[in-house]
Every structure is written in C-alpha cells, then in structure tokens.
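In this section we walk through a basic example: taking a raw amino acid sequence and producing a predicted 3D structure, encoded as discrete structure tokens. The instruction is simple. Fold the sequence below.
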Amino acid sequence: MADTEAIDGGPPEAPSRRDSILDIAADMFVANGFHATTVRDLAEAAEMSQPTLYYHVGNKANILVLLHQSVLDVLLEPLEALAGSDRDPRDKLRRFVEVQVDAIERYRSRMIAFSRERHSLPDDLSESMNPDRDRLDAALDTILRDGMAKGVFRDVSLSSARIAIMGTLHWYAICVQPGAYRRPHEYADDFSRLIMAGLTNAPEGPLSGF
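The resulting token sequence is shown next.
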C-alpha cells in the first residue's frame, strides 16, 4: 500500500485523480464550509466537468465519507500490525502517536473538514463509518491492555485513556498550523512523554522545550 509505505518513511506515490479531488474538496470545505461549496465549485477547481467529478467521488456527502475513510485506510493497517506486535508497550504507544502525527501532517485539511462537517452527513452514512473507527480504537485499546497486563501502565479506565490520547491528537490537528515554530516530531515526542507520564508509575525525564 503506497500510503502506508509513505507513513513509514517510504516515498509517496503521485496523487491519484481521486486524491487530488479530495485534497481540493477538503481545502474548500475548510475555507468556505461544506454547505457553501457547490459541486460546480469543486468541478471548476478540479478542472473537470461535474459528471466526471461524480464519477470519481460521488456527491458531496460521499466526499465527506471519502475524506474520513482515506485517512483511516492509511492508519488502520500499520496501527493494527503495531498493536499485535511483540514490541514493548511503551514503544508501541510512542509509535502509535508518531504514526497519527505523521498522518495529521499529510491529511490535516481532510481531518479538519470531516471533523467540522460530519454533522452534515445523514445518519446511515455516518453510522457506516463506525466499524473502521472502532478498529482504530481497538488497536489503541490492545496496546493499553498489553501495557497494563505487563505492569508497564497503570490500571486505568481504557475509555478514559483512549479519550485523553485521541483527544490530544484531535486538538493537535485543529490547533497547530503547518509551519508552526515546533516540528511535528517534537510535538509527537512531547505528547508521548506526557501520555507516558500519566500512564506509568515511573514518569520519564523532562519534556523537550520546557
């Protein structure tokens, strides 16, 4: 999978026609809003006819689904493999955060557009995405359970730990703009240290930048 390879450090392939449309749509949804952006606007920005746009991505609601699914398609395979590996739970949790930060850097507009506009989806489309979102949560839960079983992590509520970790990553996507004064790997390192300090009985050393 080209996207997975890129997340892990390999060279990304040139974007497909559909990926180019999704990037354009994400930027326009973020800048102008979902409802204010018409299919005609999207087709003109993508330099194609409206029927061609429909052929590649469907209607606007389907575009929102594709924005979300395209990110999950990149994340699920490596994170599920990571969760099932025999690496130290602390290393797995650090890598989980790093992979998510890498994805945010690549797909920030897609994530923000979906987060802001998901309420615009009909219930059936919104619910159709739950299984893959549950898989992402399950990968994190597997890492946390492994750490608790080995005595590496404190015995805390899985849902509380998951909300804290995923909430941190969500707000990173929303709040930290590209070109910020700190580099993505520095944020990933600090997030990992902060999370680890709350989960382990022996917190790590001082946070970088403090």
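Looking at the output, two observations stand out. Residues 1-14, 204-210 have pLDDT under 50 and may be disordered. Residues 2-199 form a domain with the Tetracycline Repressor; domain 2 fold (CATH 1.10.357.10). In the next section we compare this with other chains.
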